[in-house]
Amino acid sequence: MSEYQFRETEKKWQTYWEENKVFKAADDFSKPKYYTLDMFPYPSGAGLHVGHPLGYIASDIVARYKKQQGFNVLHPMGFDSFGLPAEQYAIQTGQHPAVTTEQNIKRYIEQLKNIGFAYDWDREVRTSDPSFYKWTQWIFMQLFNSWYDLVDDKARHILVLEEHFEKTGNQLVKAACDEDVESFSAEDWFNFSDEKKQEILLKYRIAYLSEAVVNWCPALGTVLSNDEVKDGFSERGGHPVERKKMMQWSMRISAFADRLLRGLEDLDWPEPVKEMQRNWIGKSVGAQLAFRLEDSDEKIEVFTTRIDTIYGVTFMVLAPEHDLVEKITTDEQRKEVEEYVNVAKNRSERERMTEVKRVSGAFTGAYAIHPFTNEKIPVWIGDYVLAGYGTGAVMAVPSDDDRDKAFAEHFELPIVEVVDEHDKIINSDFLTGLSIKDAQMKAIDYMRDKGIGYAKINYRMRDAIFSRQRYWGEPVPVYFKNGIPYLLEEDQLPLELPEVDKYLPTEDGEPPLARANNWKTEDGFELEKSTMPGWAGSSWYMFRYMDANNKDHFVDENKQKYWQNVDLYIGGSEHATGHLLYSRFWTKFLYDLGFLSVDEPFQKMINQGMIQGRSNFIYRVEGENKFVSHGLKDLYKTQALHVDVNIVDNDVLDIEAFKKWRPENENAEFILEDGKYICGAEVEKMSKSKYNVVNPDDVIEKYGADTLRLYEMFLGPLEQFKPWNTNGIDGTHKFLKKFWRLFHDAEGNFKVNDSEPSKQELKALHQAIQKAEYDIENFSFNTSVSTFMICVNTLTDLKSNNRAVLSDLVRIIAPYAPHICEELWHLLGNEGSVSEAGWPQFNPDFVKEDEHTYPVSVNGKHRDNMTFALETPKEEIEKAVLENPKVQKWIDGKPIKKMIIVPKKIVNVVV
Questions:
Q1: Is there a binding annotation on residue 688?
Q2: What is the DSSP string of 598-653?
Q3: What are the backbone angles phi and psi of residue 160, rounded to the nearest 5°?
Q4: Crossing angle for the helix pair 729-741 and 705-714, nearest 10 degrees?
Q5: pTM of the model
Q6: What are 857-879's pLDDT values in tens digits?
Q7: What is the rounded distance in angstroms from the CA atom of residue 344 to the CA atom of residue 695?
Q8: Among candidate residues 634, 635, 671, the one with its CA nearest the CA of residue 653
């Protein structure tokens, strides 16, 4: 075999791994475990482009390396297979989303296997598989049957809460609950009807049904989460989104806010992701107080972190959606207020928070009474105040808040300075002269004594909306009796998706499940018509991989205790406040109820950077069917057009392929440079519209999977953004050929020897072992590839074909380029897979420096190099240098003034 035949070899070893289940994770609790995981992919119809496998290759290298080190490695793959794209396609074509999803998954698996990933495919999970979503539904049931005990700071079963109610009512209960819960005694509870009791319990449940302000997208016919809305439009499809009140299932994630915040400290995550979560949770220490409305029993509750500025309050602002707006608006102001509310409610929260220069509002006509001064202050509405943050109302202090100040200046409202340049309180009655901190404490004492307010910790994070008015999602295991939600029995799970005639909402606006025939229980009660959101299945899937085929439990207790949680999680930072936060919430909940032994799902996380596309351009002469090469384009008036990068090689356009790609240009004229059409180039995001998407299948067909794997790692540090440049991949491919030739003679015959390795061979090898081990442990994969290249070059120069040296070299390159290494391991006479052959032991003695090559200069000019043992005495070095014929030539018999010897640096003879 003269040349490495990568196509045949790669298929051969991929088949071997699959047939022999080489990467099947054993439930062998005696071995140390290592669990590495890629973020749950959604199987899109477009399949993978070369940017997608970046993180997968990195985690695969780690998985293979850990396996070689003797760890029991869990490295699974599955699919987040519910979602909008398949459903949108179903709406357009009438094809069931399950069919599209199955086709997409099949394509993904084919591509993933072609790249040679060491996945345990026996543990594959899919969120849309009833055997999986049975347990998503089961977890929902546990959430529904739980409440959050603020005394114990944990979730507990709802039966414990009912016991409290039976003994003492709710007056001594400290729980996360709705704000409108009324006080009742044990006797009251005893006398309540069953329906009344269920209504009360619903206000305490962690999974609960309530009216909420949501992001409603009419075009998609569903509610969207905040991270699915960008600038007032749906992220998918770009459809307008409006804010409206609807009955929705929600999750009381806000009860876990402080634990979610504290838990970040012990996680080995990128600091920007942790900071995004901190900001999203948004812990604030402050005060809650009430402003009484003039001539009314109503009060406006506000939360402030700056109660020390209370005397600077000159007006109040309510969110346009605030419940009091309609009640307090005067007849004179009603038209203006209603018009403003209609406009403001359709602006996304993101817009309202970020557009600081845009000032708008409307006066309600109502006045509040300042609780410290008893003065009247006007009540306005403004869209910079959000209904879901705090109380949906602010006491405006324009002297000390930029948005309040902009509002006051725009509407010519009073501004009173209350803090001087030395951070002392001024113009504030009994607070005047105090520091900010002292004023806060004194103001809180005053509020408490007067019964108008109290100290409070607040969180920006709101409860998570948990229902979507879509078809392609997990059915919620709930039925309704007299409008009250009740759970199905566990033995009725999974509640499977029914068949429907269309995947659209009904004509009267109900979700698609309303189209199902008899979507009811056996007793005739209506089943819930909304489905769960996309984040439901992805919030716990990492634990299902530990026991993917268990029909009796979502995960076996002993298996979970062994695998614990994910040791290495690789994925994008864009999921910081969605999937990553929700999965932490569900894990803490399941931990509280004793179903898990850990309260965090991912111990270490790395955010891989994006591989950007490298676009190519051709230049068409305006008004003509003529194209000018890049270097000549300035001689003409041209228009730059994207061209398919797959018909460009090293920026040289394949003109015949271009004519086939664009038949309308079959007779076009091409103005060339040196007989070639040179394209322009630019780094951009990979997208179909820019024709710069590179399919990994094409790269593998031309260069092989090992080349793709090595090249993606070689591009740069894992976390950085970097451009894909097909021009550079050839060098990586040539390296693998050079690596192959180390094991073969000039005629292409496999040839290694069993002689004793030389000192230089062992040094090159063990430098590579040390660096490869360090790099994988520190996730610096790009520098390992450079190390391999240096080692192979050195061994090639040494004409090394030593069996012991080459065997160890194969083992350290195997995690990166597994196919070629499996073949070479086999040719070396070994049985089984190289991934089961262990990791070579680094010997520091082989890389110790025992000699140094000195550059020797005469009067500062380099004349020769001389090698000496490190322990050589200075006198012997001097003697040998002066006896060197080349040195003698340049001394030319002149007297030696001095000789400078800097150990392990230089020798300089001065004459």
A1: yes
A2: -S-SBSBEEE--PEEEEEEEEEEETTSSEEE-GGGGGGS-EEEEEE-GGGEETTEE
A3: -65, -40
A4: 120
A5: 0.86
A6: 999 999 999 989 888 889 999 99
A7: 44
A8: 671
